[in-house]
Amino acid sequence: MPARGSKASQSLYENYKDALRRGHVAALRGKLDVAIVAYGEAAEIAPDRALPHASIGGILLRTGRPAEAAEAFERALAVGPRDEGSLKGRADAMIALGRPFDAADALDRLSNVLDGAGRLPEACDAARRALELAESKDRRRHVGALVGRLRQSAGDEKAELSLARALKLLEPVQVDESRVAEPAAAESTTAEAEAEDEATAAATGEADQTGDTTEAEATEAADDDLQIDSEHEPEPVDVNALRAAAEEALAAGDHAAALSGLLATAAAHSAAGRSVAAIDACYLALAIAPADADLHLLLAELYLERGWRPLAADKLVLLARLAALADDGLTRKRICTLAGDRLPDEPRLVELCA
């Protein structure tokens, strides 16, 4: 009997693994309805496992059904209260439902779980997101304590990135408007001095050596120069407006618009040299579209801007493997182009792109 029971248990476990595998493959290929059915089979076989329920929640969230997703994540947490994927998924579902306090509560719990597992940078990221969603003294104190420990992790890329994001929240940069105005004032003073020099030169006859240009002609030429400059001056990008629009789209359940807005936000930050803020926008977008190739490629480029070559290489290697599974030749070509330009000596990418 024990032997028969052991074989039955083994068979049940194999069926569970097979259902999960079919769900993962279907999700990767975009067959989301098929994935939900497969994950449901896994949940029936092993009702005490959180993973099938969390996987269903993830699919429902991707398809713009946050209320149903929240229920799936609650089922997962009922059997696995410390399950990381379920806590993160519940937070994302609450954000999509416009319930920031519930989302912050899930992120508080996630931060404690991650900290207990020795994953300090991720714990700090979760605590920071909770503080952003629902300000409180306890949350601010908690983030401050994690930041104090992160400061001791110099040289660790994940720790430094997490620290930069947390400090941006705890210690916002104060702009001294009087100092910002100084360069403009200096330029104005210089221009006035040059104008006085020209007037003096004209009065003494020195200006005659430059030709017979009249004052009207000089004014017209100056106006033409200003018009040319204004035509080539790029329109300013309101990053805050982009971010706000993306968050509104996310709250409304329009994940496509939210993803587009966050990618535009990241690109605008990157163009302005704010790579940490750009990476932060990308991480928010990952919650919406964890398999988006454009997003992962942008992250790799931002990592390279920061000088984090190993992190960029890891990102491209993982993305290349996913592209191979999905038979996505275009993404593979883009990966290899970026790798050839920026990481030509990375052996793993050389092998993948050979």
Question: Would you give an account of this structure?
Answer:
With 354 residues, the protein is mainly α. The protein has 4 domains: 1-98, Serine Threonine Protein Phosphatase 5, Tetratricopeptide repeat; 100-171, Serine Threonine Protein Phosphatase 5, Tetratricopeptide repeat; 238-287, no CATH class; 291-354, no CATH class. It is 79% helix and 0% strand. It has helices at 2-28, 32-45, 50-62, 66-79, 84-96, 100-116, 120-133, 137-150, 157-170, 177-204, 215-232, 239-251, 255-271, 275-286, 293-305, 309-325, 329-342, 347-352. The chain is globular and about 60 Å long.
SSE layout:
Blueprint: H1 2-28, H2 32-45, H3 50-62, H4 66-79, H5 84-96, H6 100-116, H7 120-133, H8 137-150, H9 157-170, H10 177-204, H11 215-232, H12 239-251, H13 255-271, H14 275-286, H15 293-305, H16 309-325, H17 329-342, H18 347-352
Helix pairs in contact: 1-2, 2-3, 3-4, 3-5, 4-5, 5-6, 6-7, 7-8, 7-9, 8-9, 12-13, 13-14, 14-15, 15-16, 15-17, 16-17
